[in-house]
Amino acid sequence: GPPGRASAAAVASMRVSAPQIAQLLVEAQAEVNDANVLGETPLLLAVRAPAGTSLGLVNVLLAAGGKPDVADLLAGETALMEAAYRGDVEVCQVLLEARADPSKKNPEGLTARDIAAENDHSQVARLLRTVCPTADDEEMLRRAKPLWKAVEACDAEAVSSALDGLADDARAAVDVRGGIDHGGQTLLHVCGANAAHDDAGEIARLLIEASASPDRQDVGGKTALELAVAEGLALEEGHWG
């Protein structure tokens, strides 16, 4: 057939077979973090695989303990930086969920977010922004620490007290993201994930009254409502706007 069709067929075949072969090698106890002479680990090579084949390979290697933050010797770039350069949103999401560090910099001083923006990959840049707090965000997170602790403890009384203590800054505090350690989640995400707790509804009401946005997505693309539904609860529409 025409070269284009043959190439497409080859890529389709590789998309299926490459992860299967990788899984067999992992099960045979292949070392997933050994690097080649260029410092490239199997995970980094997987991210650099042809379009459409990377995601399956990356999933296999991460599940087997692949380390996402190893940089190669030639470019000094990690798997997340490479995925950002390629504009691969799905691979970036998987790496972030595996706790890849978005704050790491290459020898030129660029983070994965910088690389995505430099190459006009706006969707990836937006994703990375959810786990890369600005200096202002970090300061707000520091000030809102009692509020985060109260929400995580599902203590409605402590949440109310912490919001009062933040005064005019409460509106900014309820929407600031928790960074990579919290998967880019906001306080409403934390509340949604704890929806089975008795105080969760009251805490959600307090946060929404303080202008928390119910539509923000975490690094996995989930909203607070999706997390709450995943807990098996049918929340009243009035609680979530």
From TrEMBL:
Top-level taxon of origin: Eukaryota
Keyword Repeat: yes
Gene3D superfamilies in UniProt: Ankyrin repeat-containing domain
Keyword field: ANK repeat, Repeat
Signal peptide interval: none
ANK repeats: 75-107
Protein name: Uncharacterized protein
